[in-house]
């Protein structure tokens, strides 16, 4: 269980109330998995947003985290986590660490998390948050996540938190049999879709879910 850093954010008791309200909202939007709801009720999202935005941390919206990037909307984090958990994973790869919030949710669910971020500045901030919250089982690296993390694969689940027009084959190749990859897929400025690719003993199968809006999956590092 993660402690609240009440003093540093001046949120005090209202933070837990705001989180409880967010969880009610996620339930009304169709999130059912009690493990996901419990972890998101306990994890202080305000630690993952920029200074000055803490009071908005429990709204169900994406928020800026600098460098033109965003922390994903809580509903999307919950939805992607539910889709990933259906594969009963032990080891998961995230592409796009960003604020670190999605990785923290996965770690609090007891998964061994590997996360890759292409913007060094964001990764440093995320690592600082992991340390502050004593989140173990998260390994991170500064790299182009479209290449995956082959030394550590195969993964039971891979999650992309940035949208490309296609899912890179390097990533599906790092999926274990029975594993799932969940990603937003589609061009920027047009409707992207949440997609789940499952590796079966015979190959890959794909399911499509709701329309979503993510920042772009880019090449190289900065
Ligand atoms: N999971 C994050 C969401 C951050 S937004 C969170 O919970 O806050 C998506 C992130 O993906 C951005 O930080 C962006 O820099 C990163 N990204 C985009 N393309 C990438 C790539 N090829 N490799 C690694 N990270 C990438």
TrEMBL record:
State the SUPFAM superfamilies in the record: S-adenosyl-L-methionine-dependent methyltransferases
List the subcellular locations. Cytoplasm
One GO cellular component assignment for this chain's record is: cytoplasm
Q: Which reaction does it catalyse?
A: [protein]-L-isoaspartate + S-adenosyl-L-methionine = [protein]-L-isoaspartate alpha-methyl ester + S-adenosyl-L-homocysteine
Decide whether keyword Cell wall biogenesis/degradation is in the record: no
- Listed EC numbers: 2.1.1.77
Q: Which PROSITE patterns match?
A: PCMT
Which InterPro entries is this protein grouped with? PCMT, SAM-dependent_MTases_sf
What GO molecular functions are on record for this protein? protein-L-isoaspartate (D-aspartate) O-methyltransferase activity
List of catalytic residues: 72
Q: Name the source's superkingdom.
A: Bacteria
A biological process term (GO) from this entry? protein repair
Per UniProt, the keywords (alphabetical) are: Cytoplasm, Methyltransferase, S-adenosyl-L-methionine, Transferase
- EC class of this enzyme? transferase
PANTHER family noted in UniProt? PROTEIN-L-ISOASPARTATE O-METHYLTRANSFERASE, PROTEIN-L-ISOASPARTATE(D-ASPARTATE) O-METHYLTRANSFERASE
Q: What does this protein do?
A: Catalyzes the methyl esterification of L-isoaspartyl residues in peptides and proteins that result from spontaneous decomposition of normal L-aspartyl and L-asparaginyl residues. It plays a role in the repair and/or degradation of damaged proteins.
Q: Which family does it belong to?
A: Belongs to the methyltransferase superfamily. L-isoaspartyl/D-aspartyl protein methyltransferase family.
Protein name from the UniProt record: Protein-L-isoaspartate O-methyltransferase
């Amino acid at each position: 269980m993660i402690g609240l850093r009440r003093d540093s954010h001046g949120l005090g008791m209202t933070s837990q109330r705001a989180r409880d309200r967010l969880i009610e909202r996620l339930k009304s939007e169709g999130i059912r998995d009690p493990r996901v709801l419990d972890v998101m009720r306990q994890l202080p999202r305000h630690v993952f947003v920029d200074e000055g935005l803490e009071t908005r941390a429990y709204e169900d919206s994406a928020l800026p985290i600098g460098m033109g990037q965003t922390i994903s909307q809580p509903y999307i984090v919950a939805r992607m986590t539910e889709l990933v958990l259906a594969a009963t994973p032990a080891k998961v790869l995230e592409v796009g660490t960003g604020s670190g919030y999605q990785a923290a949710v996965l770690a609090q669910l007891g998964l061994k998390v590997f996360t890759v971020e292409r913007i060094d500045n964001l990764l440093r901030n995320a690592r600082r948050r992991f340390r502050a919250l004593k989140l173990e089982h998260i390994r991170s690296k500064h790299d182009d996540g479209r290449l995956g993390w082959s030394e550590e694969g195969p993964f039971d689940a891979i999650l992309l938190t940035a949208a490309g027009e296609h899912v890179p084959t390097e990533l599906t190749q790092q999926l274990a049999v029975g594993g799932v990859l969940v990603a937003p897929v589609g061009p920027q400025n047009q409707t992207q879709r949440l997609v789940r690719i499952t590796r079966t003993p015979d190959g890959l199968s794909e399911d499509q879910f709701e329309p979503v809006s993510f920042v772009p999956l880019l090449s190289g590092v900065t």
